[in-house]
Write a structure and sequence with these properties.
single chain, alpha/beta, two-stranded antiparallel sheet, 6 helices
Length: 273
């Protein structure tokens, strides 16, 4: 619900600065390691995007499968692969394809969310239940996306993460975006697959950008903190969806609501504790 406002909050503009000066990152390839991608969304339209430059270092490809034919890749999604050997080793059986998709297709939603936040195309008239209405866009609207599916129903396994990071570097991505990490405290670097893989990527001049995790706000709860990783923590956006509750005695209590249903009646409703 915040995406339509984030660019303005960050001070990004079409008329000056980082966006126009970089041509919206047209020549940048972002490898997103996550739960895959849902390619049919408007965020991944390649309208007005030229084919990737012939001088590009890109050597990747799109894996083809029944629910994700390679034809779904375009000038926006230029690569899509799935990594599951570590997961299947843990399961001690093949993936149950009636339960999850053994392809780059994202049936969970997280990877699609992170990919569109990083490099989604401009989508007009976007909203969440008619709230936050406006133009939604990723931070680098012309950047190309290579999706590497590393996370499955039971989690993300070190061997699959490392295999995907190596593959992304070999494919020629410029940035690895990874919103995955350990729960709780950060492990020692030598036991942290993301830190190990990121070190290898950094040696090949690939920027690795990772989320700082969902724990906290206590001390020592940030993860992906190796000094060769760009660690990104969430901040509070200055946007609210205020809604007041007015009691029968006239007192007003401010709150927040994303309600979008039947219009409330003109008479007072009972307040149930």
């Amino acid at each position: 619900p915040h995406t339509t406002h984030t660019p303005r909050f960050l001070g990004l503009a079409d008329s000056f600065g980082l966006w126009p000066n970089s041509d919206y990152a047209d020549d940048v390839i972002v490898g997103v390691l996550d739960t895959g991608i849902w390619p049919e969304l408007k965020s991944f339209s390649d309208e007005n995007l030229s084919p990737i430059s012939s001088s590009s270092s890109w050597k990747g490809s799109c894996q083809s499968s029944p629910d994700f034919p390679s034809s779904l890749c375009n000038n926006k999604i230029i690569g899509a692969k799935a990594f599951y050997k570590g997961y299947e080793s843990y399961l001690e059986r093949p993936i149950d394809e009636s339960q999850e998709s053994k392809s780059p297709r994202d049936t969970e939603g997280h990877g699609t969310h992170t990919a569109s936040t990083a490099a989604g195309a401009v989508v007009s008239n976007a909203s969440l239940f008619h709230y936050a209405q406006g133009e939604a866009r990723g931070m680098a609207t012309k950047a190309r996306i290579a999706a590497y599916k590393i996370c499955w129903k039971l989690g993300c396994f070190d061997s699959d993460i490392l295999a995907a990071m190596d593959e992304a570097v070999s494919d020629g991505v410029h940035v690895i975006s990874l919103s995955v990490g350990s729960s709780g405290y950060a492990p020692q670097y030598y036991r942290d697959s993301i830190a190990v893989g990121a070190f290898g990527a950094a040696r090949h001049n690939v920027l690795v950008s990772c989320s700082a995790g969902n724990s906290g706000p206590g001390p020592s709860t940030a993860v992906n903190i190796a000094p060769w990783i760009l660690t990104v923590g969430a901040s509070t956006v200055d946007r609210e969806f205020p809604a007041d509750v007015i009691l029968g005695d006239g007192r007003v209590f401010g709150g927040v609501s994303l309600y979008y249903g039947e219009k409330l009646p003109d008479f007072k409703l009972p307040l149930v504790y």
